[in-house]
Amino acid sequence: MRSFSILSSSNSLFCSGYYAAFLPPGLFPRKWINPAPKPSSSGRFPLISLQIHRFPCFAVRSTGTQEVLETDSSALGFVETGYISGVHGLQGEVRVKPSTDFPDLRFSKPGKRWLKQRNSGTETLQEIELIEGRGHGGQKWIVKFGNIDTVEQAQKLVGSTILVPDEDKPDLEEGEFYTRDLIGMTVVLKESGELVGTVDSVYKTGAHDLLHVRLNSLRNIPNRIGKMNISKDNLGPLVWVPFVEAIVPTVDLEKREMLITPPKGLLELNVRSDERSKKERRELEWKERKKFQRRVIAAKKKLYEMEQKHVFDGVGYGGRDKARLLANQIASVNSNLLQQALQNIETPLTRPNLLDVLSAVPGPHRLSISDEPYCKLQRKGHLLNSDGKIAVCVVLGNTADTENGSAANFDNSDVKSILDDHASFIQVEGRQSVPLILVCAAGSVSSLQELFWNDDFFGFDPEKVWFLEEEKLPVVSSSIEGHGKHKILMKSPWEFLQRSVGSGGLISLLSSQESLLDHLSETGIEYFEVGKINRNHEKSHALLGLLSSCSANVGINLFEGITVEEDFNIIFTMSFVRKLIKQLNKLHFRAILTRNSYVQKIEKEWVDVIPSEANSYEFRASIYGCLDATPINKVCVLDSNL
Fold first, then answer.
1. What is the spatial distance between Cα 427 and Cα 419, in angstroms, rounded to a whole number?
2. Contact yes or no for 80/70 (Cβ under 8 A)
3. What's the pLDDT score for residue 29?
4. In this structure, what DSSP letter does residue 69 have?
5. How far is 12 from 328, CA to CA, in rounded Å?
6. Whole-structure pTM value
7. Is 141 a residue whose pLDDT tops 90?
């Protein structure tokens, strides 16, 4: 099987990923954003920053940060290869951050280049001669341009984008394509020769690229409720087509045509189930943009009030895609939670030992697996589970990974083995009635969704499965900067340096998922279980039965090796979950002193700061903080140590 590869666009993307169910199992990796049939139930879609990868079989090298085709009229016919981030030395050299798959060719080979600069809102192109270049510190390059011999001259180039002519592109191997060559191609059904539409854009989702295909306006497509959609304007609907060889076996660059063999139902996906006009759709899109702009404005105002205006220093650098990235970062930061965490630096919390706290739980509210009522309460919990009274929230990986700052520390094979093990998880016959919420790092959402699609959701009802991103907060400086504030550290001029807030972040996460909680309550859910993937469903049944019998708010499973932060199996009543959300301002954080590299703008230059000792605070919160919100006689404990 030949290997296809694309140099394609890498953008942040909101995408509904129903298409992935149609990929042949075992052939190609596939990733998507939200495969659930009712994406609105999850409250929010995760925002994935797409990166470049290369895979065997049908490798897809994302091109979109890699040699971005500029659409601005001043730069037509050029491709972006890098961004000048700062000055190096005293001889007029500059530092460059590449955005190309061919940095050696673009920055070490002398010749003409063009610089795109923005001055007073106007973009200009300037021809310049590249004299020499060399790699420097990982992905960065040091470049020398002609007639740029002083620091002052070099500083005037900082913020510029380096371009090369569109025709000056390297020859690709067989089966490799540039995104710009695919866009606009005619898409045809291989078997019948029927015109499907044209390629509108190409996106990278992690494991392979997606073609966004604009369907032929005369093509009748049945929507999800069986009705036919016939476009009333010149533009048909957009659908996602996975760019894998099994579905796109032929790409003819000369004919500007690709042949596809889509599985049944693929082209019906993402087609609107209503008959809104083009005008109505545009009005909806305009409203969404305005809504996003209002979020950005409100977030900017809040960050200014917190004396964090340096996070906007990246505005005006790197072009429109970087500006959008920064806007997304600003809009997504939980400034209220950050402000709350910052206050805990000055007033650190001293929390008593968990076991000491739970030792005060009344005797009737304690149960050991060796106690006589255990089996009776286990049966009661099993009945509540079968009646669809409990939702299960599984937190994957290490929720307070200080190395990676995310919950990506889990392996899909481990997840699959546990889900397939009925002794460790809910039995298959009982899964249809149980809503399942999975929380993991943003970078793991796609692979997790892929795993569930491949295995028919492991017996769970797809309409009752939600995939949520973990809660994160920016990392801040440990030293107090100007205005007496701890400064948010930047990963790049357009990205905050962020880390997972740990298990307690689940409370904050649920506060942003009101529609999900409403849906659970409307469907009769009375209990909400939170735990790691390595749960034992029989013990969970016993804990549920105990919680119900005691009329408690919280049930905690104590097991061997339990720690306050990382190990937990807790059941809440839904009413208590609502109470926790309302008391989110009482969530306490620990400020952990760590060492983190970051970037900082000094005068007009972006500088990489690599500290030699701890220089920053990362914030952690524990799920066991819920005990502060309930009397101890409203807590019950299952002791699983015996």
1. 9
2. yes
3. 33
4. B
5. 9
6. 0.64
7. yes
What is the average pLDDT across 41-51?
Answer: 31
**What does the radius of gyration of the chain's CA atoms come to, in whole angstroms?**
27
Q: Which amino acid is at 257?
A: E
Specify the 3-state DSSP secondary structure of 136: strand
Q: SS3 for 292?
A: helix
| Helix/strand/coil (H/E/C) assignment for every residue in 348-389 | CCCCCCHHHHHCCCCHHHEEECCCCCHHHHHHHHHHHHHCCC
DSSP string, 618-642: EEE--GGGGGGGS-GGGEEEEE---
Q: At what angle do helices 514-522 and 574-582 cross, to 10 degrees?
A: 160
Looking only at the bridges linking them, the beta strands covering 122-136 and 140-145 are antiparallel
Domain annotation for the chain: domains and CATH numbers: 5-63+174-268 (2.30.30.240), 73-165 (2.40.30.60), 350-471+500-585+622-639 (3.90.550.10)
What residues contact residue 361 under an 8 Å CB cut-off, 6+ apart? 632, 633, 635, 636, 637
Instruction: Assign 3-class secondary structure to 575-620.
Output: HHHHHHHHCHHHCCCEEEEECCCEEEEECCEEEEECCCCCCEEEEE
At 206, the pLDDT band (50, 70, 90 cuts) reads low
Amino acid at 287: K
Q: What burial class does residue 601 get, using C-beta atoms within 10 Å of its C-beta: 0-12 exposed, 13-18 middle, 19+ buried?
A: middle
Output the six-digit token pair for 462.
Answer: 């797809």
Task: Please state whether 580 falls in left (phi above 0), alpha (psi between -120 and 50) or beta.
Answer: alpha
420's tokens? 């397939």
Longest dimension (CA), the chain: 88
Give the C-alpha separation, 415 to 434, whole Å.
18
| Percentage of the chain modeled with pLDDT above 70 | 75
Q: What phi and psi, each to the nearest 5 degrees, are found at residue 273?
A: -90, 5
Helix (H) or strand (E) holding 252: strand 250-252
Which residue's structure tokens are 């606009």?
Answer: 184
Cα four-point dihedral sign 349, 350, 354, 356? negative
Q: Among the listed ranges 81-90, 530-539, 577-586, 622-631, which one has the minimum average pLDDT value? A: 530-539
d(CA 530, CA 121): 50
Say if residue 633's pLDDT is above 80. yes
Sign for the pseudo-dihedral over CA of 243, 244, 247, 252: positive
Neighbouring residues of 638: CB distance < 8 A, sequence distance ≥ 6: 367, 368, 369, 539, 542, 543, 546, 555, 556, 557, 558
Question: What angle is formed at CA 312 by the lines to CA 311 and CA 318, rounded to 5 degrees?
Answer: 110
